Amino acid sequence: MPSSFIDRKVEEIRNTAGGGKVICALSGGVDSSVAAVLAHKAIGKNLVCIHIDNGLMRKDESKKVVELFRKSYKINLDFVDASELFLKRLKGITDPEMKRKIIGKTFIDVFEKEAKRIKGAKYLVQGTLYPDVIESVSFKGPSATIKTHHNVGGLPERMKFKLIEPFRELFKDEVREIGLKLGIPKELIFRHPFPGPGLAIRVMSDIDKEKLDLLRDVDEIYIGQLKKHGLYGKIWQAFAVLLPVQTVGVMGDERSYENVIALRAVTSVDGMTADFYGFEKDFLAETSNMIINRVKGVNRVVYDISSKPPATIEWE
User: Fold this and answer.
1) pLDDT value at position 285?
2) Does residue 152 contact residue 124 with C-beta atoms inside 8 Å?
3) I want to staple 226 with a disulfide (CB 3.0 to 4.6 A). Which of 192, 211, 232, 300 is the partner?
4) How far apart are CA 231 and CA 130, in angstroms?
């Protein structure tokens, strides 16, 4: 990605904003982070980022996002803890599309309320990518809707903001290249993708805090193992899924009837197609034992060997 592209996007954002306030929905993922730093380069203090903790994020993620962008980048950042509201609205919901729609609507409700406090803001920066667009709506030719992305479509009408989407026609690898040119640390740039609906679509049942905390603990062990064994950078995306089944196991001298975890890891270039990663048996055995021994409520771990297509990367 040539530097001229960055210069052009900086100029576009600056001209579009016209000296006014611009809001950025900052999740802390690669796309929104690069979009925020790019916009900050363009308009400085006129950018206000809003980070919403929806209760569906990875362990301590919101805390890390707030610290990074406030301290390292000196970006104006409003933090909103809306975890209780999200979990309340998701209570009892099992259908994945319904989860996405509820999360999207709740995000808009919370974001709109917070955005009203920022006087004079007319524009909203989003890190929307080309795969997000073509999986949600037809763009650049026929494309079936695969799933709803809560950051694609619908926001301008409800929130009355004009969108600035500098990466709308780019793929993830291109955005990462821009991030590196902007001086963003590799640790952030090469983080695995994380879905907008978060862990809600990795719990294959209704959602509550107990299930989410269990999955967060599993995820921390799994990702830690990948980094320990030098595998994290070889994989496009890796995560754990909490299945809606329980199985019999043996814990000590007693039988257990507890949860099953599925591990997923894929290699990809742009997320449009993907192959499962071929772990060594010893790695899977070690990771499975760590999860079962350290996370109360799990007694079985399985590994997903499906590729995309026909499967998607995420399970929901």
Assistant:
1) 98
2) no
3) 232
4) 27
